Amino acid sequence: MHAYFKIRRWVLWWFYVGVVCGVIALVNIFLRDLTRAEEHEFIFLGVLHWVLGGVVCYALDGVQIAKPTAPNSSDKPVDQTEHQEEWHPASDFLFPGGRKSILPPRR
């Protein structure tokens, strides 16, 4: 089963900003002598960032999951060929007479 994810560019930027701010907040929490209230403020702002990002992505369809649709033969022009995945065994890519066997020759 194939699924296509369409992620808008601003969603990725929101994600990157959230990760960078989260790292900065964790460094401040662990390496500085902060009060419990200041730690809670950092955590609250981080959670608020991620929740707001999720709500905005949901509201504006920032991430879409779509199943591939089968193209109609009547919709596409005649000169376009249908994309099909090809499969070839590895022996198709060898030059004739260039095979090396790891086993001794048969008698």
Task: Provide a compact summary of the structure.
The protein is mostly helical and 107 residues long.
- Helix percent reads 40-55%
Overall 3D shape: elongated
Per DSSP, what share of the residues sits in E-state strands of 2 or more residues?
Answer: 5-15%
One letter per element, helices H and strands E, the order comes to EHHE
- Output the radius of gyration: 27 Å
If strands are numbered along the chain, what order do they take across the biggest sheet? Answer: 1-2
**Between the first and last Cα atoms, what is the distance in angstroms?**
48 Å
How would you explain this protein's 3D organization?
There is one protein chain. With 107 residues, the protein is mainly α. The chain has helices at 9-31, 36-59, and strands spanning 4-7, 63-66. A two-stranded antiparallel ribbon has the order 1-2. Helix 1 packs antiparallel against helix 2. The mean pLDDT is 77.
Q: Layout of SSEs?
A:
Layout: E1 4-7, H1 9-31, H2 36-59, E2 63-66
Antiparallel strand pairs: 1-2
Helix pairs in contact: 1-2
Name a few traits of the molecule.
2 strands; 2 helices; two-stranded antiparallel sheet; 107 residues; mainly alpha
